[in-house]
């Protein structure tokens, strides 16, 4: 289904037709302009364009911008009804994408709709929901056009312009609209008939039909939803017509809206049905002609129409092209697929041939040649990465508003102001992009240290490669714990069970086999395929890689589990912070704009001032500061042996107050040693040792330290031990908790099945017990004796496995053969506590982090280990007890229990979520296959470098050494990073908020604007330069001793209290300056510019520490850059550059007053800070 939905690049034979249509449109437009200039004076036409009124242009820009927002809201309305959310900003970008595709590939709007469908599906939205969105939007489009064109035709006839050609053309298009509006919802979701199957041979029709038949009738035939969508589409049409109306006002010609609406709709018919991109030329000719019916002169009509095309066609083309690149690339990639889509149904020989591969895999040179054709999820190109980052910086809503303001200034011939605004915006974006790219590349290098590996056959031998180096045609060896590196076909499989919930949502592992399935098999029915990003739970397999990177099923779902972790608490806090600032900005800008216009201030200056206020309040460098702070923290953590995989989880690590961990390798050394191989009576037995050694050395499934310990013990105690021939194997899995090997031993008359595993699980399938040479029934009394020995050894800290055997007749075995076994004896393993772990646990407790053990081991062993390392165990909860508990009971008990034993993987996840629901920030440290669900559920997932791939991929952090001390060091770095991020937020919300409020209030009472827009932006830019140094600032040791969490309420209170103090001193400055400079707006602005910037620099040193600022030493860059910017601020009015910003030299009296006000402000802020943080600390106490 994915392939059918992808937009594709135009085929080679279609491209000349597309270019021809563009050339034809350009020729028509040129002919129109020449023709109009023949009828109207060329100089008058140029004068009309050059004298367009900026205010009306701004209205037109706003109206046109709203069309994309409304189109985006239409998508959101349908997806919301389908149960899927889509941010409005993302939806608006989709509407821009649709515009570009529609113009580049003329098809009456279908090509753009297909591209939107492709992009929505790549976000992970279900195909049926995406198809429904397509059908509803298309149907709504035609309903709206039917109604609007009907109204336009009525207006034309009523005004005496209803010629036969106009009526016939309009009626034909209305009939077409009516048929499409009815047909699209009715056929959506119906079964495919014979005609549809024949039409599918046409490539573009195949995509269209796939979308139609995949739609959900409950959505496409929902009258309420269709009504809303049609209303949105009708609103888009009205906004377009209003844009043309506003542009006519801008060029000095007011005309009745009804006539303009009719003209726009009649011209739009040619734009919609023509083969020329966007109706280029035809729309302009029709619009000019029909506008003349409303009395609009030719020069004014052409001017307004050309301006309309600039706003609605040419300007959005650039962002539309950039946003549509993914859709175009996806189509090009699919066009070059190396195999047919139904690779799961092909004979293996044909599949090998199509991939130019074979059972032995590829040669290294052949694999290297295929690498460039594989689009990887993360292959950053420096120039492209920087360009993308720069565009993201420039595409934020606030910056776009500022750029529009600069454009208006250019139109009004205010060249200097416009260029200064543009220069500051671009400089800020460049600074942010440089920091972001540098940070991302540093993190990429760190991630490479813990990248997943794959065992691949190359050049006839098995090699360990980075998973990203796998290419189509590779043969990959897999075992339990492997993360699947590519989509492919199974060549061999043995008890292969795979967890593919990531793609299909299936709860339990699915068995995979090397078989053929039907070509129409759905994803969940392809039992002979493995998919990238899923994980192997048990067994062994050999995979033929078919699709890699972004060509995989997971590649179509870019924002899935592995690639995009859930939103962290800090990210939620930042989102709330952004919402708070947005609300404040909307109130402030609306009030300033309205009242200053009411006071008859210059409209352009007032508009730029209001926009600059909004930008001045926004922390525009916050993304750069965050990237720099987080990447600096990640580099320091890497130096200490902690690799950060998910950057935004660093703050969560600092906020963590509960750490859940298994005991093995964390509290214990993790170097398991076999202490003894004992028979059923508890006596050392060479026979038990030999059977255990054969089982461990011949198994080929999950590698584990227990088998390695058996091998080490056997080599030490019985070096002359003889081997046997392996016949078959039943790999270990986490349900049976057993591993069985079938072998032929020269000393035995028949093949023997040797089973090793958890004692209870081995005893479940045992019916006999071996005592000496005798095999006796395993009675209840004998079971009790075995259980007593097990309990005694467990209480002493040993991990105990059971060993059993049986004779077999054949040379193959299955799980069903694990019955009626003969219990042979015990294997005792010992893993002593890690030296120094007691001290590390005490250090964690001092940091406010409670440690809880979640173990699958026996309760007695787990308790002995916990108590030996200083963890108080008042109660143990077992997996059996958890299985009987309701969630409410577990939520109540989990915070009060320090040891959970005998738990299964799903129960680990339940414990994590129960702790989270009680308000804890929970970390989990694990390294096994069964730890992956808990690692992903935890706020902080921590794994180790030698963990299985699936555990490392689920983790946020990877420890290069299995030491608890690294976790403690990581917590220190997390808290430092969190502290420095909060410093910047406190700084911007206090100083910026206060300054902007002061300017907004002052603008109502002063006879002039207190600062010009370019001065506000310069002030904001200069104050942000020292703020970059916050990323490497020192953090007070007292602050790092306890966990800290994001508190939007505290940020709000801080902003209000410190903002009011800042405003009070600003108002004091406003009162002092007129006495010192008189009625001189330039000197007033210069004095307040210096004062506001100096006070912003001072507040950095006040808010960066909870201590008195003179008792906490700042970072070197922060100190030096602040001093340099302060010096530059004082000198700037005396330089030629200051003149560009309308700054004038200040008399000494003004500088003295500024110095005195700054000192008073620092003292008052310091006093307020001490009171604020004392109260905040008291409110956080339990």
UniProtKB/TrEMBL annotation:
EC number: 7.2.2.14
Coiled-coil annotated spans: none
Catalytic activity entry: Mg(2+)(out) + ATP + H2O = Mg(2+)(in) + ADP + phosphate + H(+)
Topology term for the membrane: Multi-pass membrane protein
GO function terms (MF aspect): ATP binding; ATP hydrolysis activity; P-type magnesium transporter activity
The protein's enzyme class: translocase
Function per UniProt: Mediates magnesium influx to the cytosol.
Signal peptide feature range: none
Family: Belongs to the cation transport ATPase (P-type) (TC 3.A.3) family. Type IIIB subfamily.
Keyword field: ATP-binding, Cell inner membrane, Cell membrane, Magnesium, Membrane, Nucleotide-binding, Phosphoprotein, Translocase, Transmembrane, Transmembrane helix
Organism this protein belongs to: Stutzerimonas balearica DSM 6083
Protein name: Magnesium-transporting ATPase, P-type 1
InterPro entries per UniProt: ATPase_P-typ_cation-transptr_C (IPR006068), ATPase_P-typ_cation-transptr_N (IPR004014), ATPase_P-typ_cyto_dom_N (IPR023299), ATPase_P-typ_P_site (IPR018303), ATPase_P-typ_TM_dom_sf (IPR023298), ATPase_P-typ_transduc_dom_A_sf (IPR008250), ATPase_P-type_domA (IPR059000), HAD-like_sf (IPR036412)
Domain Cation-transporting P-type ATPase N-terminal, chain residue ranges per copy: 342-414
Annotated GO CC locations: plasma membrane
Entry's transmembrane regions: 20-40, 52-70, 104-121, 133-157, 163-188, 225-248, 254-273, 280-300, 306-323, 394-412, 418-437, 580-599, 611-630, 1054-1077, 1083-1103, 1115-1134, 1146-1164
Pfam family, one: Cation_ATPase_C
Cellular location(s): Cell inner membrane
């Amino acid at each position: 289904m994915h392939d059918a939905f992808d937009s594709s690049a135009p085929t080679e034979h279609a491209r000349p037709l597309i270019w021809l249509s563009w050339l034809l449109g350009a020729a028509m437009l040129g002919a129109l302009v020449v023709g109009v200039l023949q009828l109207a004076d060329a100089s008058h036409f140029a004068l009309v364009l050059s004298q367009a009124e900026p205010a009306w242009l701004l209205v037109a820009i706003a109206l046109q911008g709203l069309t994309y927002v409304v189109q985006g809201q239409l998508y959101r309305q349908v997806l919301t009804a389908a149960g899927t959310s889509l941010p409005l900003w993302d939806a608006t970008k989709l509407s821009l994408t649709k515009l570009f595709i529609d113009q580049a590939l003329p098809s009456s709007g279908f090509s753009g709709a297909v591209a939107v469908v492709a992009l929505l599906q790549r976000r992970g939205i279900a195909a049926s929901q995406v198809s429904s969105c397509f059908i509803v939007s298309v149907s709504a489009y035609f309903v709206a056009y039917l109604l609007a064109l009907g109204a336009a035709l009525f207006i034309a006839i009523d005004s005496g312009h209803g010629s036969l050609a106009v009526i016939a053309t309009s009626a034909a298009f209305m009939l077409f609209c009516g048929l499409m509006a009815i047909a699209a919802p009715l056929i959506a979701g119906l079964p495919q008939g014979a005609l549809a199957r024949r039409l599918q041979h046409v490539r573009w029709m195949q995509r269209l039909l796939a979308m139609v038949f995949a739609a959900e009738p409950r959505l496409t035939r929902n009258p309420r939803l269709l009504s809303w969508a049609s209303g949105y589409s009708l609103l888009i049409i009205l906004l377009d017509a209003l844009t043309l109306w506003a542009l006519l006002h801008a060029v000095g010609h007011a005309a009745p809206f009804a006539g303009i609406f009719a003209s726009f709709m009649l011209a739009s018919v040619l734009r919609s049905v023509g083969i020329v991109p966007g109706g280029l030329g035809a729309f302009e000719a029709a619009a000019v002609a029909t506008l003349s019916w409303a009395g609009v002169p030719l020069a004014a009509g052409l001017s307004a129409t050309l301006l309309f095309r600039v706003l609605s066609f040419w300007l959005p083309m650039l962002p539309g092209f950039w946003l549509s690149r993914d859709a175009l690339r996806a189509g090009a990639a699919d066009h070059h697929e190396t195999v047919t889509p139904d690779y799961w149904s092909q004979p293996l020989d044909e599949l090998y041939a199509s991939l130019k591969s074979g059972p032995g895999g590829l040669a290294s040179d052949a694999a290297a040649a295929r690498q460039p054709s594989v689009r990887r999820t993360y292959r950053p190109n420096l120039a492209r990465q920087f360009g993308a980052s720069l565009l993201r910086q420039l595409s934020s809503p606030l910056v776009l508003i500022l750029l529009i303001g600069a454009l208006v200034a250019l139109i009004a011939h205010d060249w200097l102001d416009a260029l200064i605004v543009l220069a500051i915006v671009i400089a800020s974006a460049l600074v942010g992009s440089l920091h972001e790219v540098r940070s991302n590349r540093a993190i990429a290098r760190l991630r490479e240290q813990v990248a997943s590996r794959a065992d691949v056959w190359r050049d006839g031998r098995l090699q360990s490669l980075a998973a990203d180096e796998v290419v189509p045609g590779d043969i990959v060896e897999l075992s339990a714990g492997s993360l699947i590196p590519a989509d492919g076909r199974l060549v061999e499989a043995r008890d292969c069970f795979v967890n593919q919930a990531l793609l299909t949502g299936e709860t339990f592992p699915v068995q995979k086999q090397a078989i053929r399935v039907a070509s129409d098999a759905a994803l969940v029915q392809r039992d002979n395929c493995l998919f990238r990003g899923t994980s192997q739970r048990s067994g062994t397999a050999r995979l033929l890689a078919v699709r890699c990177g972004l060509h995989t099923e997971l590649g179509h779902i870019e924002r899935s589990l592995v690639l995009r972790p859930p939103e962290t608490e800090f990210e939620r806090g930042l989102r709330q912070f952004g919402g708070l600032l947005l609300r404040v900005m909307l109130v402030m800008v609306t009030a300033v704009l309205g009242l200053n216009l009411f006071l008859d201030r210059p409209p352009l200056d007032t508009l730029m001032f209001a926009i600059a206020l909004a930008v001045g309040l926004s922390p525009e460098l916050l993304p750069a500061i965050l990237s720099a702070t987080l990447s600096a923290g990640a580099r320091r953590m890497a130096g200490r042996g902690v690799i950060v995989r998910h950057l935004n989880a660093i703050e969560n690590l600092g906020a963590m107050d509960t750490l859940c961990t298994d005991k093995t390798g964390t509290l214990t050394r993790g170097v398991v040693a076999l202490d003894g191989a004992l028979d059923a009576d508890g006596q050392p037995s060479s026979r038990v040792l030999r059977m255990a050694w054969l089982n461990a050395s011949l198994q080929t499934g999950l590698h584990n330290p227990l088998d390695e310990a058996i091998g080490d013990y056997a080599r030490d105690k019985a070096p002359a031990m003889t081997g046997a021939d392996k016949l078959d194997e039943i790999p270990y899995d986490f349900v049976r908790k057993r591993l069985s090997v079938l072998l032929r031993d020269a000393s035995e008359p028949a093949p023997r099945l040797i089973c090793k595993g958890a004692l209870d699980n081995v005893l479940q399938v045992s019916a006999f017990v071996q005592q000496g040479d005798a095999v006796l029934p395993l009675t209840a009394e004998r079971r009790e004796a075995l259980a007593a020995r097990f309990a005694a050894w467990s209480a002493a800290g040993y991990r105990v496995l059971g060993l059993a055997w049986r004779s077999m007749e054949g040379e193959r075995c299955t799980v069903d053969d694990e019955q009626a076994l003969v219990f042979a004896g015990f294997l005792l393993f010992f893993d002593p506590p890690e030296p120094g772990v007691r001290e590390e646990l005490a250090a964690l407790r001092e940091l406010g982090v409670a440690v809880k053990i979640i173990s699958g081991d026996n309760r007695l062993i787990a308790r002995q280990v916990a108590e030996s390392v200083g963890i108080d165990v008042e109660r143990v909860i077992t997996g059996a007890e958890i299985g009987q508990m309701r969630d409410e009971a577990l939520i109540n008990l989990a915070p009060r229990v320090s040891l959970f034993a005998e738990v299964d993987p799903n129960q680990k996840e339940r414990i994590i979520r129960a702790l989270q629901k009680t308000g804890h920030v929970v970390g989990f440290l694990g390294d096994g296959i069964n730890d992956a669900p808990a690692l992903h559920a935890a706020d902080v997932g921590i794994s180790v470098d030698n963990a299985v791939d699936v555990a490392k991929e689920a983790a946020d952090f990877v420890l290069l050494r299995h030491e608890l001390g690294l976790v403690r060091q990581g917590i220190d770095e997390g808290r430092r990073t969190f502290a420095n991020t909060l410093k910047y937020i406190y700084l911007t919300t206090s100083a910026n908020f206060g300054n902007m409020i002061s300017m907004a209030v002052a603008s109502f009472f002063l006879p002039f604007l207190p600062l010009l827009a370019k001065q506000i932006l310069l002030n904001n830019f200069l104050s942000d330069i020292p703020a970059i140094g916050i990323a490497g600032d020192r953090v007070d040791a007292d602050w790092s001793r306890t966990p800290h969490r994001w508190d939007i309420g505290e940020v709000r209170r801080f902003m209000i209290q410190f903002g009011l103090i800042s405003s009070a001193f600003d108002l004091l400055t406003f009162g002092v300056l007129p006495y010192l400079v008189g009625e001189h707006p330039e000197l007033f602005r210069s004095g307040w510019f210096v004062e506001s910037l100096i006070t912003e620099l001072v507040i950095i040193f006040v808010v960066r520490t909870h201590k008195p600022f003179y008792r906490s030493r700042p970072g070197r860059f922060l100190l030096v850059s602040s001093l340099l910017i302060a010096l530059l601020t004082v000198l700037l009015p005396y330089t030629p550059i200051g003149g560009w910003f309308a700054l004038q030299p200040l008399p000494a009296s003004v500088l003295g007053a500024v110095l005195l006000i700054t000192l008073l402000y620092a003292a008052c802020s310091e006093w307020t800070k001490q009171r604020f943080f004392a109260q905040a600390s008291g409110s956080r106490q339990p």
